Amino acid sequence: MFVAMAAEKAELQQLRSETLKAEIVRMATLNEPAQERIADLHGIVKQLERAASVAAPRSSNVTSRPSPSKSDRARRD
């Protein structure tokens, strides 16, 4: 009886081990494309940050002129 219980326990452990190995392979298969996509997105974010930092100084160089007030318009007329 003890031998049968030990054999069953060993069989369950083997099954659990195989199941875990299969799950690890499945997760690795899913993980690789996800990591590639994350790297692609990280590159896109870096490009956008560089583009924003290049564009920001240009917009700050533009000086705005104050709009003429009513008294300035009256003097011109």
Report on this structure.
87% of the residues lie in helices and 0% in strands. It contains two helices and no strands. The chain starts with a helix and ends with a helix. 0% of the residues are buried. The mean pLDDT is 84.
Task: Give the secondary structure arrangement, pairings included.
Blueprint: H1 2-61, H2 70-76
Question: What is shown here, in short?
Answer:
The chain is mainly α. Helix content is 87%, strand content 0%.
Helix content: over 70%
Give the DSSP E fraction (strand runs of 2 or more residues): under 5%
What is the number of helical segments per DSSP (H or I, 4+ residues)? 2
Number of DSSP-assigned strands:
0
User: What class would the helix/strand composition place it in?
Assistant: mainly alpha
Task: Encode the helix/strand succession as letters.
Answer: HH
Q: Output mean pLDDT.
A: 84
Instruction: Round the Cα radius of gyration to an integer and report it.
Output: 34 Å
Low-confidence stretches: none
Oligomer: single chain
Question: What is the terminal-to-terminal distance?
Answer: 114 Å
The largest pleated sheet is described as: none
User: Quick one: overall form?
Assistant: rod-shaped
Tags for this entry?
77 residues, mainly alpha, 2 helices, 87% helix, rod-shaped
